[in-house]
Inverse folding.
């Protein structure tokens, strides 16, 4: 890190960019850069698209999916995928996965595909809010549905996963001061959703689900207000909720998944404390 002085040019302010950074990123006079800011952080990035190439030595769909996912969340704009033994069946599978990752084919050859990643600049906090409301929908389904449908919850959980991927991508492409907290939140909510899916497969007692539903509802309320007292109040209730869940769980595996939901919600609540503290230099409880 370096300390540099700001100087004034007419009605604007300027600071010199490090020469080594400019050379590394091929930025010179008249080059365009993206400037992002959030609270007290300003980020400057080259405006040119970023490209990624993955060369896979065998037709392994699992490897391909993981590499495409990594390219997406790492913020690349163009992805060239080269696969030895790329037959028609594997190509169709790759295309299906790519559509779900907002990747559009630009060019194809016998053993390669080039994708362009379609970017939609969602607000990260709105995406997290969607994840939280989706979590509430999932737990409501366990209570209100005449017959619980684990496959429906799996598809909803896939949507939660996509929200998390979008948040990670946005934080790589447009990094700001709160990105670390947003990624943590997204991962905790996603993992809570995973355990709700596992609970659905176990057909847990209705009373246990009602207790979890109450905890999720309190978390939803807490996440929607920028109030540190509300967050601490939620955290203080979690021990009572755990005690109640232990009384209601029929077996250890059911208790494990219910307990993990509470764990991840508590972790997420602690991240909200960090965010509130960052936004405000004075906190009163």
């Amino acid at each position: 890190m370096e300390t540099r002085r700001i100087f004034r040019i007419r009605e604007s302010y300027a600071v010199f960019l490090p020469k080594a950074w400019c050379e590394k990123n091929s930025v010179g006079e008249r080059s365009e850069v993206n400037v992002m800011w959030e609270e007290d952080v300003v980020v400057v990035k080259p405006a040119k698209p970023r490209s990624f190439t993955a060369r896979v030595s065998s037709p392994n769909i699992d490897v391909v999916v993981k590499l495409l996912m990594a390219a997406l969340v790492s913020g690349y704009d163009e992805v060239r995928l080269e696969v030895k033994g790329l037959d028609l069946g594997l190509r169709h599978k790759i295309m299906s996965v790519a559509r779900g990752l907002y990747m559009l084919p630009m060019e194809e050859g016998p053993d390669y595909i080039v994708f362009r990643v379609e970017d939609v600049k969602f607000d990260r906090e709105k995406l997290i809010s969607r994840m939280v409301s989706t979590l509430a929908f999932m737990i409501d389904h366990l209570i209100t549905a005449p017959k619980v449908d684990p496959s429906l919850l799996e598809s909803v959980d896939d949507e939660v996963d996509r929200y998390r991927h979008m948040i990670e991508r946005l934080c790589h492409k447009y990094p700001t001061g709160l990105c670390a907290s947003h990624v943590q939140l997204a991962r905790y909510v996603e993992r809570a959703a995973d355990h709700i899916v596992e609970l659905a497969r176990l057909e847990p007692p209705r009373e246990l689900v009602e207790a979890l539903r109450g905890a999720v509802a309190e978390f939803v309320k807490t996440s929607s207000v920028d109030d540190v007292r509300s967050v601490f109040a939620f955290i203080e209730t979690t021990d009572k909720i755990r005690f109640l869940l232990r009384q209601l769980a029929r077996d250890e595996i059911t208790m494990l998944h219910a307990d993990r939901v509470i764990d991840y919600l508590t972790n997420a609540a602690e991240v909200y404390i960090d965010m509130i503290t960052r936004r405000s230099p004075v906190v009163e409880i």
